[in-house]
Design brief:
- This protein is α+β, with helices and mostly antiparallel strands and 253 residues long.
- It is 17% helix and 40% strand.
- The protein is built from three helices and 14 strands.
- Strands 1, 2, 3, 4, 5, 6, 7, 8, 9, 10, 11, 12, 13 and 14 form a 14-stranded antiparallel beta sheet that branches.
- The longest helix has 23 residues.
- The radius of gyration is 18 Å and the shape is globular.
Length: 253
């Protein structure tokens, strides 16, 4: 998968959070049952649908140092979205857009951008939303339209066992040729790790563990991802599901 210029090379862009076509996903019966069990362990579809707001920071740590951090505020019900981040040069910018329409505005160092420059930042904001929300929310997205599920066997270690779900994508998202595997703990129903192969890669899958599952409001979220091979950490130092947020967050920089 080719990562957007404002995203870190080697990180995966979520494939199914971009608006998919209205169609039914392909899923074998056993894979669908595992995905349903995951959703129940997360709190259930009803609890997820009733969760309106998400507030989180997406951060990347390498060699013990945080090398990138972005702040997200998302109204799931309306599509309103706010991104606060910095360019590679350390210049602060804000993007306000609607995820459903992709219409938005952008400010760089406090000055509103216009024309092509504004459009570029709005597009980058949308790509950041796709990437960062998929890292946070993939277990909730397993049965989204356009997702094909298959059960790729099991994995066992000691007294634990995991169902291995393969996720592929039917022309949805920014990079539909990527492949993911979610390892679902048979005892808890939660995802303990995932692995992925990006489009064009011929190397073995990259693996991240999913750690520190907790209840936020009525749903479960994990705030830590770790790559055991190179020590890269993806984490969410701010993570909240507030009951309400001021409208100004989605209308003013």
């Amino acid at each position: 998968m080719r990562v957007h210029s404002l995203l870190l090379p080697g990180l995966v862009l979520g494939s199914v959070l971009a608006a998919p076509p209205a169609r039914t996903q392909a899923a074998d019966t056993k894979a669908a049952a595992v995905a349903d069990r995951v959703m129940e362990a997360l709190g259930g579809a009803d609890a997820w649908n009733k969760t309106r707001y998400l507030r989180f920071d997406f951060a990347v740590e390498r060699d013990g140092k945080t090398v990138m951090r972005r702040a997200h505020t998302w109204d799931k019900w309306t599509g309103r979205y706010r991104l606060e981040a910095s360019t590679r040069e350390g210049e602060a910018y804000v993007v306000l857009l609607n995820i459903n329409t992709k219409d938005g505005r952008a400010w760089l160092k406090g000055t509103e951008l216009q024309g092509d420059e504004a459009a570029k930042y709005v597009e980058q904001g949308y790509a950041a939303w796709v990437n960062d929300t998929y890292w946070l929310l993939m277990p909730y997205k397993m049965k989204d339209p356009g997702v094909s599920l298959a059960l790729d066997g099991e994995d066992k270690k000691g007294g634990e066992a995991w169902d291995k779900l393969r996720l592929t994508f039917d022309n949805v998202g920014l990079t539909p040729k990527d492949r993911y595997w979610a390892y679902v703990n048979r005892k808890t129903g939660l995802v303990d790790r995932w692995a992925y192969v990006l489009k064009g890669e011929s190397k073995p899958p990259t693996t991240f563990t999913w750690q520190n599952w907790k209840k936020y409001g009525n749903v479960m979220l994990a705030d830590d991802r770790r790559n055991p091979a190179d020590g890269t950490r993806i984490y969410f130092p701010v993570l909240d599901v507030p009951g309400s947020l001021p409208d100004a967050l989605f209308s003013a920089p």
